[in-house]
Amino acid sequence: MVYNRFYLGIWLRVIFLTGTIFIFCWVLMNTSRFYTMLLLAGIILVQVWELVHYQNKTNLYLSRFLINLREQNLSFRLNLNQEGSSFRDLTNILTEIQAIVAKANLEKEKQFHYLNYVVSNLDVGVITFYSTGKVELCNETALKMLGYRSISQLRDLNSIYEGLGDFVLSLRGGQHALFRINQGNKVNNLSFRCGEFRIGTIDMKLVSFQDIHSELEEQELDSWQKLIRVLTHEIMNSITPVNTLAQALIRQLRTGNEIVDIKDIDQEMLAELITGLEMIEERGTGVLEFVEKFRSLTRMPLPQFIIIGIDEIIEKLLRLFRPELTGKDIKANYILLIKDLTILADEKLLFQSLINLLKNAMEAIGNRSDKEIIISAGINESNRTFISITDNGDGILADDMDKVFVPFFTTKENGSGIGLSFARQVMRLHKGSIHLESESEKGTTVYLMF
Fold first, then answer.
1. How many domains does the chain have?
2. Separation CA 135–CA 82 (nearest Å)
């Protein structure tokens, strides 16, 4: 509607201008009236000026309006009512646009204050920053945990906590890492998580962190309690029969408070004594072996990292166990999801871990008729390389899932209980992780994540 009226206004002015020019030409050609021609020429100049002014007036008003929008000056008001009905319509439309923009800005400001309130009241520290290290947002929790009033650059963190700023800047999207800081006599273990996002063409990172020192202490205490229960159970199982047997032998060699005369010891009693001592020696040897296994877990060798082809090490593992797998009628399948997959690892430690895990899988299957083990390797959704071993055994009870990594805990009659705990230590040396997924009557999968 506005455009039509403006368009009509232009056409009317052009028609009047054309008519005036036509009259001027007719007077010029047919008469010699100088003053009439001068008057007509003046009218033509006024009409040309008015046409240009009419055209530029709209452009000028629009320019002012857009400039004020760009500068967020929403208090600016256009008053074109005196310019005619077409300009009144233009005023109404521009006012509506101005109101819409003002409402959008108000909603944006509301969302900003709401988000700022939520972030400020989080129990975790939050920092957003650019790839240059310039900090865009840092909530109150982060400032309190780090002991700062404000942070403008990540490198500022290096002045109090050596390497912290560089550590945060080096975090990648999806990465989870720990950093220890000392605040006086207090040690804080900060757990960091990093996410990456893009605003327009600008890459940014959001890092959240929290102090998990108390959680680590609680977890460490819980681990020690579990380990002590297992150690107590194993040692008592060995010492109790030794103590009972020793008391029985003492009763045979002593009557009341008097020691039996050696002449009264016959061959049968001597055989019983020797058998008892052999049993004591056997249990003592078992305790020594148990202690040696415990020492082996606490004295892990430093890893020697080399590039290893996963396909090669799995084929080597299957060649080693093929006779036993065939003898137990176990079907073993190997699935390599990505060709020529390699990892940086210690070959001996990794191979020993895989041996333990494959043994566990073979023992878990038991006497099932359809025995099957699947070994897979590839890269998951988090871009981490993995090796998995899946069996179709009876699975692990839910109550035992939190105990399987405790040294010497086992659900098998002749199990040592060190396979999974050894594998966990190996994966920690590789900055990786190990976890299980198990379902009753369907089997268990062990994942090694690098």
1. 4
2. 51
The residue ranges of DSSP E strands in 319-384, in sequence order, are 331-336, 342-345, 372-379
Number of helices and strands in the chain (H, E): 10, 14
Average pLDDT of every residue of the chain = 77
Contact 293, 418 (CB under 8 A): yes
Q: Which residue has the tokens 């009763």?
A: 251
In 177-304, alpha helices (H): 213-253, 267-298
Token representation of residue 324: 């036993």
Q: What is the pLDDT of residue 407?
A: 62
* Shared domain check, 66 and 101: yes
- Is residue 271 situated within a structural domain? yes
pLDDT digits (tens, 9 = 90+) for 279-300: 777 777 766 766 665 666 556 6
Q: Which of 161, 193, 211 is the last residue of a domain?
A: 211
At 28, list the tokens.
Answer: 């010029």
Tens-place pLDDT, residues 201-220: 888 898 888 887 666 556 55
pLDDT of residue 2: 46
Residue 69: strand, helix, or coil? helix
**The whole model's pTM is what?**
0.46
Residues 322, 432, single domain; the answer is yes
Domain identity same for 324 and 422: yes
Of 83, 111, 139, at which residue does a domain stop? 111
Burial degree of 70 (CB within 10 A; 0-12, 13-18, 19+): exposed
Helix (H, G, I), strand (E, B) or coil at 261: coil
Position of tokens 């020797």?
Answer: 274
**Residue 173, number of CB atoms within 10 A of its CB:** 13
Give a yes or no: residue 116 inside a domain: no
Q: Which of 1, 10, 103 is nearest to 54 (CA)?
A: 10
**pLDDT digit string (tens) for 103-140?**
777 787 777 777 777 676 777 888 889 988 898 888 88
How many other β-carbons are positioned within 10 Å of the β-carbon of residue 123? Answer: 6
- Is residue 379's pLDDT more than 50? yes
Domain range for 55 is 2-111
135-160: pLDDT as tens digits: 888 888 888 888 888 888 888 888 87
